[in-house]
Amino acid sequence: MIQVRGLTKDYGTRRAVDNISFEAEQGDIVGFLGPNGAGKTTTMRILSGYMPPTDGEATVAGYDVVSESLEVRRRVGYLPETVPLYNDMTVFDYLKFMADLRHLPNGNERVNETLQLVDMEERAKGYIGNLSKGMRQRVGLAQALLHRPEVLILDEPTIGLDPGQVVEVRKLIRDIGKERTVLLSTHILSEAQQICDRVLIINKGVIIAEDTPENLQASLIGSERGMLRVKGEADNLIKVIKKVKGVKNVTPKEEGVLEFQFAPGTDVRAEIAREIIKAKFDLLEMRSVGMSLEDIFLQLTREEQNNKKL
Amino acid sequence: MRNIWTIAKREYKVFFATPLAYIVMLFILGVIGLILSNAIMQLANNPFGVNQPPDISIVTGPMSFLLVFSIPALTMRLLADEQRMGTLELMLTAPVRDWELIVGKWLGSFLYILTIIGVSLIFPLILNSLITPGIDQQKMLSGYLGIILVSAAFLSIGVAISSMFNNQFAAFFLTLGFLVGLWFLIGIPAQIFSSGSELFNYLNMNSRFHSSLNRGVINLSDLVYFLSITALGLFIGSIVIESRRWR
Ligand SMILES: Nc1ncnc2c1ncn2[C@@H]1O[C@H](COP(=O)(O)OP(=O)(O)OP(=O)(O)O)[C@@H](O)[C@H]1O
Ligand SMILES: [Mg+2]
Asked: ipTM score of the complex?
């Protein structure tokens, strides 16, 4: 559904996207993850037919984004990062306008159905200029969904939404992603973890990792972590826990809270608990802390920088 | 065609939600109304005077003059604002060709000007009822055709210039300067330089309007001229929008 080969984009002398390649099939939800300025928006703009790449090629829904741009645009739903909307129109009129540009039959019904999908029916007659940021986001999403496109490109779709809506929109994206192809960008790593089948980590215009969230986590874990909480000061416990076999490192966090790292595959928690009791501390809580995508992400981008320096 | 119409319809409605567009309409109709009522009063005071009774050019002449200053205010927003607000990204990722966007914008503003021109028809009607044997219909037709052609060309220039800017005031002043040049100033170099005078005379929009269309003379070459300027403006606008993609 989406095929990208050697895509490169220069803005003047600045290279925003540097020779990236990836693919996404029907039914895939692919997440673009990367820090500010990584090139996510640039890539999405190229795939949505907004601008041509400097080099490389991309096909979306079987059509070339440069030579068959119009065909691509007919089949793609795109939510731009800035969520541009006509403030001087009502929500309904705006969506009807976009539906007319897409030559949708039964435009009025389609608009109403889509408004329901994003939970904005009550504001249909209101002016877009008077909407809150989250509501604008939902109108933008409705615009992208109007024609039930084969490919959805969503640039930071949940930014600015309240927690309830975030859950709703993520669910919506997952539902849509069952039959269609979704490419979304986000800074929220747990979001990528929750909704994406595959994550592309991009930094400085280069894809530095690509895998399922689970595999990324597994492949990068050098050690597992756990945390424990005891009553009172825990500083004296550090030495005690360090003695337990398999424990690599212990770091104090806040008062009464310690974090410990241990080799993967071993479980040291029972032994640690025994030692704590023996040392006459009151153990309040202990659990393992998985390595989050957050950590993976920071680690990868840091590695990337170090490699450059060498 | 369908996309052009969809875009034009939206644009036309936006004009009716824009205070500036109403101001432009009131300005044009108000000034012509004043000029006309002044002329009618003179006629009433001096029915057997040596002066010719006013003809239709008392409406179309000032109107052409007012268009030079009004049209930049109508077109400045058309594409500059889309760029400033980011909605251009919406249009450029919709299944719409770049030229359809430009022509749609132009058509929307053209329909708005046609509305103003339509309302202004009350002035010839009033004039017709006051003078005997009524106004010269041939002159009326060609004068109004001239106004429509001038509007079409002016709007197309305005749309093209608006596509070059993110800032509507920059678009306003450049369009105004361009129209003032094309309407008032272009006759000057034709008088000074003998060598290029043919080109300047060819381009002189003012003389095409005042010395033929507004005198009841419809020349094919004038029609071709106005339609070519209109097409050229729309073409340039489309090229500019397309080139924006490549930056
Ligand atoms: N129109 C533009 N003109 C010049 N440079 C640009 C333009 N748009 C983006 N850039 C540059 O290209 C690089 C990539 O930007 P891009 O917007 O694609 O990043 P991003 O991954 O979407 O970042 P964010 O997470 O902040 O949205 C940045 O260095 C940015 O400054
Ligand atoms: Mg971005």
From this structure: 0.90
